[in-house]
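So, can you check these tokens?
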Amino acid sequence: MTHEKDSLIVFDTTLRDGEQSPGVTLNENEKVEIALQLSRLGVDICEAGFPIASPGDFAAVKRIAQEVGPLIEGRKTGKPMRICALARAVPADIERAYEAIKYAPSNRIHTFLATSDIHLQYKLKITREECIARATAAVKYAKSLGCEDVEFSPEDAGRSDRDFLCTILGAVIEAGATTLNIPDTVGYNTPEEFGSLMRHLIANTPGSDKAIWSTHCHNDLGLATANTLSGVLNGARQVEVAVNGIGERAGNTSLEEVVMAIHTHPDYFPVRHNVDTYQIYPTSQLVTKRTGMVIQPNKAIVGSNAFAHESGIHQDGVLKNKLTYEIIQPEVIGLPPPALFLGKHSGRNAFKTRIEELLGSVVYAHHFHEKPALLNSLFGKFKSLADTKKNGVSDDDILALLDDELHIRASGEQVYQLKSLHVMSGSGVSATATVTIIDTTREPAVTSPIIGSPRSEQAGQENQVAGLELSDAAVGHGPVHAVFSAINRVIGCHNVLAAYEVKAVTEGSDSLGKVVVRIHEGPDSSQGQIPKLIPRFEEIDSATYQGQGIDEDILVASAKAYINAINRMKSAKERQSKLEPVQRGEIEVIGGVVPSVPESRNVDV
């Protein structure tokens, strides 16, 4: 006799905890785009952000609730994804969170408060009794606003006293909490310890059967997935995860690892999930492209080496029967089949057909159908690339061109665009770069082609840009330094280079090059100087902005990426200036006072 398995609730925190990864800054459009894909993926709950942290966070969560919250397309359950917002155990936070998520048909408030003695004594400076009073008051207030689904997390539960945890969790259940999330905040526990903790809490907390128990594990010791699965085996029925395992410090539990572990062991785990596994790889790729966080090649499930075999014995076995060395079929996670190649003689119809085939399995199909003019622009860029590649243009090349175009459009208004670049460099000589940039906001308006515009007449005039041409030159210690310094001089900006990465899109020396940069504002004294490099993101206090560029020439790609980051910075500042200013101060809570707005949006839950 078989028993019906419990449904495992997949709670995705990519947009909240995942965005706390050092150097990651997503704008509103990118957050909505990722939320849309999470809905297609089939996650049950999306933690969309921390609304009290900033007006921008609030706006993004509200928009996700409005635009993504009602969607049911492609979801196995036939129900919309629940939209969740994080809040401290502070009435103002909770009210702000509800104002953002109330537009979603299915919503949740996630409130938290530290419970370990070290946090109570040194951070919160309150007693255990005051901690219980503050936690229960927070849950009751959330319920009073009309939010029926309230989650409570005892921060640093992994190092908290077990008896005290049972007491405070029983109190919040009585106050109305519907989900109890047990975070291993600093990634301290082993699987045996965490499983034992989960089992103990469920067995000894008053009213434990009235709530759903959840895991939230960090990967500081590389045990996040193992701890999460141990929690599931010991009674947890919700897992808090992030795509690609991104998050604070060493990251969160990886969504794809937990889902595929359960998928490949259907007889071992007592739960079933509602995730569409065929959307895992496309989702992973979207997140890495938008965050700029590169996936390590040997990353389980979604790394580039996950299905690669070099050993002769392994290759022989796989050729005879894939099951000899592959426990997961690549197509099950949505990994595309081997690339097909188009050449410079391929026509528009062949290109259009291949694009349509590719769009059947990638996350931005809706973008293409909503913007038919994209075909003209992409076809021209494809023809230009095909002229330079001896072995033809692969699917990866086409997707890279499409993603680059959509990334630029999602970045906001492109105030500055690269028209031309000339670089002189060599061994034993200083590098010199001359750049011409078009400022689209200034007169006189002169229509000019930009770098990367199609040479094909069939592409039309989409890449003709009107604006004032600005030119300058600079010397650097190398060609990239010279290019970035020249851009600084042209635009008159004060930027610090936080990171620079270059990667080939495909194999071969004629591959497209993809460059990702991260910058933040520097002191005024840096105007016109070579951008300074800060090696550690932890040292950066100001907002960091990512830019990316793709081109056959990595110096051109570098210039595009740097200008893209500047445009994103400018667009973010303009949006911020239109938002209601934050009123900072202190507010009274049980046991003391707290800042009205968190000093940092990074929360270790």
Notes: The radius of gyration is 26 Å. Confidence is low (pLDDT under 50) at residues 454-462, 534-541.
